[in-house]
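Input record (one chain):
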Amino acid sequence: MALIFENKMKVRDYECDSQGVVNNAIYLHYFEATRHELMEKCGLRLRDLTDANIIPVVRNANISYRNSLRGSDAFICTVEAERKGVRYYFNQQIIRIPDNTLCANAVIEVVCLIDGKVAAPDMFDKAFADYITWNK
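The corresponding structure, as predicted from the sequence alone:
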């Protein structure tokens, strides 16, 4: 069974809109920051990948907003990875602390460009081995 990666974060006041809730676009930042933290934990740095002309690209993002985050709220952003063919699907949730309320969930589809062509790099499969579920 694949592990679930967790990243604890806190809402910064400037991320809130005029109603005092986190702007919808900011959730994409939270999801991406968590995927990048997972990459780094697994030994992959985006800078190194881009230097090697391996570019992970978000192909599709589907977000369901459930409950609002507000300024200073602490939350956990989770990520589970699934691989289908050359695509990686990152199933993510944002859960507010301390009431354990689901605030948003998303499925982020990512492909990798290697030298400009879509491909599945072996290094991702090895790095994410503990976190990935395979669906061929």
